[in-house]
Amino acid sequence: MAQADDRLTRVFGALSDPIRRDIVARLSDGDATVGELGSSYQVSLQAVSKHLKVLEDAGLVSRSRDAQRRPVHLEADVFDLMTKWIERYRRQAEERFRRLDAVLEAMGSPETFPETTSETFSEDLTDTERGAS
């Protein structure tokens, strides 16, 4: 479990940068070279390469060699790990909402509660509670 948590930390850390998130989104459409990816950003190719290194270290992308071309490929299996982690917490939240709904249902519908206004609240106060001397 610690190994999966460490990997998730690297993945979420890598995705914390908006340029890296955008690179991942672009690679979801297909492989691209550093030059192709870098053409969309006002940063150097060296900066794009550094972003790719972070994504690669997190396991989100891989690079291969295709003759003179070095395409970057999105590793979709990492998203399965992220999805499972998020899904676990989504299920827990849904269960809490179901329990809250059951409690509210047991308390009765809002129509059964008397309407309280500032006037009725004021009428219920004693002189001391109102601050009268």
For this structure, the CATH topology of the domain at 2-78 is: Arc Repressor Mutant, subunit A
Order of strands, main sheet, comes to 1-2
In the CATH hierarchy, the architecture of the domain at 2-78 is: Orthogonal Bundle
Number of H- or I-type helical stretches = 7
Distance, first to last CA:
66 Å
How much is the radius of gyration in Å? 28 Å
Supply the CATH superfamily name of the domain at 2-78: Winged helix-like DNA-binding domain superfamily/Winged helix DNA-binding domain
Strand residue percentage: under 5%
For the record, the CATH class of the domain at 2-78 is Mainly Alpha
Main β sheet profile: 2 strands, antiparallel
State the helicity in percent bands: 55-70%
Name the shape in a single word: elongated
Kindly state the mean pLDDT as a whole number?
83
Unreliable parts: none
Give a count of the beta strands, DSSP E runs of length 2 or more.
Answer: 2
Characterise this structure.
With 133 residues, the protein is mainly alpha-helical. The chain has a domain at 2-78: Winged helix-like DNA-binding domain superfamily/Winged helix DNA-binding domain (Arc Repressor Mutant, subunit A). The protein has helices spanning 2-14, 18-27, 34-38, 45-57, 77-107, 118-124, 127-130; strands at residues 61-63, 72-74. Strands 1-2 form a two-stranded antiparallel sheet.
Kindly list the characteristics that best describe this protein.
133 residues, mainly alpha, Arc Repressor Mutant, subunit A, two-stranded antiparallel sheet, elongated
